[in-house]
Amino acid sequence: MGRRYLDFEKPLEEIARRMEQLAAKKKASQEDTAPELVRLEAELAAKTKEIYARLSPWQKVQVARHPDRPHTLDYVERLFTDFVELHGDRVCADDPAVVAGLASFRGTPVAVIGHQKGRDTKENVARKFGMAHPEGYRKALRVMRLAEKLSFPVVTLIDTPGAHPDLEAEERGQALAIATNLREMAVLRTPIVAVIIGEGGSGGALGIAVGDRVLMQEHAIYSVISPEGCASILWRDKGEAEKAAEALKLTAQELLALGVIDGIVPEPPGGAHSDWDAAAESLGGAVADALAEVARTPAPDLPEARQEKYRRMGVFLELEREEEDE
C-alpha cells in the first residue's frame, strides 16, 4: 500500500503522482527522465518542509492520528533488543491495548510500556483502538513495580484517544486503576521517561505518563479531552473541532511553552509516518539523553523531585495593582 495523504497534503500527493508517472514512462520507453525526477524530488522536499512548518493545531491532530504513524511495537522493534512481553494484570485479564515488558535499550536494561493501536479494522478491534481497560493499567503498574525492584528505568510510550469508555471498564474500576497508577508512579523509586508518540488523550494517557521527563514528538498532541469532545460540550457541535483544537493548547510547542512537557522530539520531514526509521532514530536519541539526565538523581530522591516537578505546573505570579488615588 502506498502512502496515504491527508487533505492538507494534496500538493504533495500531486507531486508524488507526477514522479510515479515519470518513473513508469522511463520504464516503458527508456526515455531519460532523470533530470525531471531530480527536480520533482527537490520540489517535493521543499513543499513538504513548507507545509509542515506551518501546521495548525487541527492539522497536527490529523498527523497525530495518521493511520500509518508508527506505534509502540514499531518503536520497540527499532529501538529495543531482547524484548520480553509480559501479559496479564494478575487480577482479571490481559489487555492488548497496552504492551509491557522488559528489554535492553542501548545496553541498559529497561521496562518499556506503551499503548498499542492496530493497522486495520480487525487489529484495531482486537487492540481496542489503543484504549485500555483497567487491566491494561494494572498490567502497566505491575511491570513498573518489577522495574523498581530490579532497578530498571521505565520508558512509556503514550498513544491513545483515552481510556476505554465502555460499561465493562467502569464495572472493573477504570477510575481507580488510573488513579492508582498516578499515585504509584509519583513515588516510584526508579527513573521514568514518558513520551507522547501520537495521541495523548485525557486520563487514558496520564495513566502511564507521570514521569521525571515527559517528551512529545513534534506532531503529537496531548490534551484533557479530544477536540471533538470539547466541541460537543462547549458548542454542542462536533463540527467545531477545529476551533476546539485551537483553544485546547494541545500541540507540543504550546505545551512546552506552558511547562507541561520537558522537550520536543523532532520528526522527519512529512511526519513520523513518512519515515519510521528516521523517527525512531530521533526518538531513541531523545530518550537516551533524558535517561542520562535523570540518572544523575539518586533513586531515593526521585519521588520528591518528580512531585516537585508537577507542583510547579500551573504556578503563576499575580502582580499587585497600585490603587489609584481618588
Structural account:
- The chain is of the alpha/beta class and 326 residues long.
- The protein folds into two domains: 8-54; 61-311, 2-enoyl-CoA Hydratase, Chain A, domain 1, CATH 3.90.226.
- It contains 14 helices and eight strands.
- Strands 1, 2, 3, 4, 5, 6, 7 and 8 form an eight-stranded mixed β-sheet that branches.
- Helix 6 runs parallel beside helix 8.
- The mean pLDDT is 92.
Question: CATH homologous superfamily name of the largest domain?
Answer: 2-enoyl-CoA Hydratase, Chain A, domain 1
**Number of strand elements:** 8
CATH class of the largest domain: Alpha Beta
Q: Work out the count of structural domains.
A: 2
Order of helices and strands: HHHHEEEHHEHHEHEEHHHEHH
Q: Beta-strand percentage?
A: 15-25%
Helix content: 40-55%
CATH architecture of the largest domain: Alpha-Beta Complex
Ranges where pLDDT stays below 50 over 5 or more residues in a row are none
3D shape: globular
CATH topology value of the largest domain? 2-enoyl-CoA Hydratase, Chain A, domain 1
Report how far the terminal alpha carbons are from each other.
74 Å
Mean pLDDT: 92
Structural class based on helices, strands and sheet pairing: alpha/beta
- Rg for CA atoms: 22 Å
Q: Biggest sheet: strands, sense, closure?
A: 8 strands, mixed
Number of helices: 14
